[in-house]
Amino acid sequence: MAPTQLSVRDEASGVFSVRFSPDGSHLAVACGDGGVEVKKTTGDHSTTYLLSTIDEKIPVTALCWTREDRLTVAGTTGWIKHWNTAGRGALLHSFREEENEILALDYDCKQRTFATGGKDKRLRLYDAQTNALIRTFDEPLTPNDPEHVFALKFHLSNPNVLVGAGWGRVVKIWDARVPTLLRDIQGPKVCGDSLDLFEDTLLVGSWCASGDEAIQLFDVRFSGREPVVLPFPVGDSGASGAYLYAAKFTKDGKRVVAGGSGTHDAKMLDRASGGNVVAQVALANAAGTPKAVQAVDTSPDNTAFAVAGLSEHVLLCSA
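Above: the chain sequence. Below: its structure as tokens.
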């Protein structure tokens, strides 16, 4: 079945993050001009609520729903904003991390805390009710690398465990109750929203040429174990490589959706078969020029996934 094209505004300047709402009825779309479009996933797909989140008109880079009508967004000006998305949307609270560009955001499984990461390479943990800073993880994620924290993810059943990664070729695993790092994983180069967790399995999508190294599955409980690799087919169509920017599990953990700038597409891979491609969708602009995939997400009921990037459309695809 061909994907449904959800149009974004001409001035949106690309899409950096997409997230299904908890019941799957809406999709939040973070745009490069500072807006967030909230779209229905069924019926009249053109129905859009626009949240004007960032005054400076620069990218919104991270999204997280906390319930059906509550959405937290963050961007490269350091603003964190909590929205009520009912009706046309109302801003509930906002604050700013001075001199930081926020590129990653997630809530713990109990929604008592949330964490951010970005340009200054550090993870910060906040109280979800008061927005008070609980802790700054003092060890920079990538101390010897000029790049940023691009992804972070809380464990789905342990609210204290979180994982962060960036371009420094190291994934770090923290426990908020422990003052020092739990463990790290050396090697993966993360360049976007390409960390995810299902139970104790950590999905890491890497910005690298080799499709045989781009998707790796690690056990977060142990260091030193060899990862399970799901091959990401690059093919012989002239693609330069995999170069993944985004990767997500389906909510049942049975499949992985990933995409990037090498093949200009997103693929859904089946874990049980060792990585068979069960769905594939190419991203292009209105003129048909291939464009990079920068964001993916999977629906709560495992029946759909969304793909977006440097295109005028978000693709809503059947899983």
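The longest strand covers residues 60-67.
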